[in-house]
Amino acid sequence: MKVSVGQKIRGFLFKNAVAILLCGLLCFILIRMPSFFRPQNLVSLASEGCSFGIMTIGMTMLMLNGYIDISMGAQLYLAGVITIKIYQMTGNIWVCLIGSMAATVCVSLCNGVLIAKIGIPSMIATLAVKNVCKGISSLMIGKESVISMPPEFTMLGRYKLWGIPISVISLGVLFLIFIVIMKRTRFGHYVYAIGDNADACQASGINVFLTREIIFAVSGALIGYAGVINVSRLGGAQFNLGEGMEFSCVAAAVVGGVSMTGGRGNMLGAVMGVIIIAALDQLLRLFSVSNYLYDVFWGAIVLFTVSADILKNYEIKRERENKKTC
């Protein structure tokens, strides 16, 4: 079957919509704000995007399995509040880290049971869990809308090694670890295989539910760690901390080439997605965009990236069908 020029152009645009947008963005930055690429600004950018970057690792693994966890922002909020409450009792940030990660792992395991075992759609299950976490966190904060912490509490979020925040170094190490896990281990291969065809994996003897529970547990641990870093960097917590951050994670993963339907994408692409979304966020703040336009812009970005992924999958499927008919 012969493909027309118009179909070729449409196919190219559908499959490369995100890349075209990013090239345009890069040109805009180079022309309007070349100082954006100064080392000092890039370090600041990495520090600000560290928490959401850590969470994107977990979101990427979930999306490779065909799931989306929209409770991540609320879990980050819960992790932050728990961290502060434990620190007020113990004065030990490492105890805070263990407590925060334990809490979010438990929440994520509940998500896994609701979704992978009971069969509740991930959007519905995680929306319910989001509201529960948000309510519990707000109750723990109480009448104080903001909780400030002493300077020594900021060690993990602001301490620098060779001029680079230790939180940024830990983000890089985590990405390297998970790149290796996803490419070189049996577990990583299972994540891709289950996302591509869970029924076939179950028939071949793979414990699909256990694998998915591990993914949720790992995602929860990452959220807990991100929560500690976040409140440590900010020096405290405030009402609705982390609101909407899960959508930034989804956008970063999709921009990095992770498919919403599962089974396609990689952790290295997610790294690039995190960098791009963090850069967009900082640019909006540098241009002093109002909060209302800020929300409009991010809604448009999420809608665009998800739509681009759907169109890309549609075009790939159409090309495969055309090859079969030839």
Tell me the radius of gyration. 21 Å
Major sheet: arrangement of strands: 1-4
Kindly, what is the distance between the CA atoms of the first and last residues, rounded to a whole number of angstroms? 5 Å
Percent helix range: over 70%
Number of helices: 15
| Total number of strands | 4
Q: Indicate the proportion of strand residues.
A: under 5%
Helical/strand content category: mainly alpha
Shape: globular
Overall pLDDT: 80
List keywords for this structure.
326 residues; globular; 76% helix
Describe it.
α5 runs antiparallel to α6 (93-117). The strands form two sheets. This protein has a two-stranded antiparallel ribbon. The protein is globular and about 70 Å long. The protein starts with a helix and ends with a helix. It has helices at 5-15, 17-32, 39-48, 50-64, 72-90, 93-117, 122-141, 155-158, 166-184, 186-196, 198-203, 208-234, 245-255, 267-286, 291-325, and strands spanning 146-148, 160-161, 164-165, 236-238. The protein has 326 residues and is mainly alpha-helical. It is built from 15 helices and four strands.
In brief, what are we looking at here?
The chain has 326 residues and is mainly alpha-helical.
